[in-house]
Amino acid sequence: MKKIALVxxxxxxxxxxxxxxLHSAGYSVAANYNSDSTTAAKFHEETGIPVFSWxxxxxxxxxxxxxxxxxxxxxxxxxxxxxxGITRDSMLHKMDVSLWAKVINTNLNSVFNMSxxxxxxxxxxxxxRIINMSSVNGVKGQAGQTNYSAAKSGIIxxxxxxxxxxxxxxxxxxxIAPGYISTDMTDAIRDDIKAKIVExxxxxxxxxxxxxxxxVLFLADEKSSFVTGITLNINGGQYL
Length: 240
Ligand code: CAA
Description:
By secondary structure, this protein is an alpha/beta fold. It has nine helices and seven strands; from the N terminus they run E-H-E-H-E-H-E-H-E-H-H-E-H-H-H-E.
């Protein structure tokens, strides 16, 4: 029987690349999205991958969403990729409290919500893979991103703690810290700032979505059973 993988924020950006890679590798995949139903419908049409809408920052919505995925795909979630994330960049002295809360809720509280919902079945099954998207900016910090860096750094602590709780239950919990990857999110950065960022990347370019998806496939693999609690940097050598 095919393993079931669920990718949050799985219809756009890095998430869509992860969803497609897991699908091509033979997993039964579901993609969650929040509000962009036009993009999600187009993604479903192109790939045939089922899409499900709920807000990952809402715990009860996660419970309902996962139940729906399990019913439709016929099993429990074997692989959870906590990918959904947003930016609301601003220097702290100009940051409205709502920008702080929005990013912490969407990027960090969502990781608790989704993991808390799926982990009982993984423990029962004695198998699971939880893969959390952190960021180079969670590892090193980034001016203009106190909210995002705090959330992405928090994800690393969460990953290590849950890895320790889960290692003897056949469940691995790992993080990936992507560097700057070409997506809508990084397209939104001002061109002059983007040019300066590229200068700090030893590979001399932004990364590609497929380069992150490749890391997910590695961590999701059954053969990666002895890899847990790590943060896999995929960033072209930036700030190593
Ligand atoms: N380090 C230190 N100080 C910096 C800085 C830096 N990297 N960048 C800007 N500043 C300082 C400036 O020197 C300036 O200081 P003064 O006021 O004393 O002159 C001050 O911050 C304001 O700079 P801006 O003119 O840029 O201010 P702004 O309000 O127009 O813009 C900003 C602020 C929106 C945060 C903008 O600087 C920005 O977009 N920065 C890039 C942030 C970034 O890298 N985001 C990543 C998004 S992609 C992502 O997050 C994916 C991932 O995981 C990698």
